[in-house]
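Troubleshooting log. The previous structure file for this entry was overwritten by mistake, so regenerating from the original sequence record. Sequence copied from the archived sheet and checked twice against the printout by T.R.
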Amino acid sequence: MTTSVRRAPGPAPIDHRAAVGAETARFAAVVEAADFATPVPSCPGWTLADLVKHAGSVQRWFSVLLHGRIQEPPRSRDVDLRLPAGDDGWADWLAESAAVAEDAFRATGADTPMWAWGADQHARFWARRMLFETLVHRVDAELALGVRPEIDRALAVDGVDEFLVNLPFAGFFAPKVADLRADGRTIRFRSTDGDGDWLVRLRPDGFGLDPADDGSGTADATVRGTAADLLLLVYGRLPVGTDAVVHEGDKELLAHWFANSAF
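Regenerated output below.
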């Protein structure tokens, strides 16, 4: 599979490490007084307890990888999670997970070369990935509890970019991405609330962001919406047919994309 990467223009670079802490604090505050047996519709089969355990476990596992400065795919995901004794401890445990991550960030410089499953083979990949794991699952908790999610626009732009940059490499846990092939067909994702424009090109041997695109050309299909709505759409937290975004062009191409890009 081949890929090309072009990052969307945007505001000043995000401090992903600081944002992990901020998003985790928001997540913990959302669930602090919740019933942890509450189902999470956007993660079928999960309760809030399952959701929080997953989010905190990811932070703790990534932290182990950062401390180890791994140079090859890990062979084990065994981590001392120090899980809470009861449901009344989940919010504090999640907050402690962010503290574990902060310690790993201090110990490992962002530019440290590391193995990563995505495009960027440096420690910063894991901080950026951890941020959007946390943010999206914070949204899952809010949706489960009937809270209207709010996402900072700059974070949303960066999140869409992070998703599209790394999706071509996700085949080992999202095997359907191998079917995202076509003879040069293109899909443009464009935010309607500022900078944020990405052109994905599907080729016979794979797909990726088009590095030559300057945002002025046409595409075979286009998806327009706010950066936050685009982020929720690509992650499947908004239905494909939602009125929050506008779909233009080749409907079969878009259906093919969304059927095979689940992350």
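Residues 123-144 form the longest helix (22 residues). Archived copy saved in two places this time.
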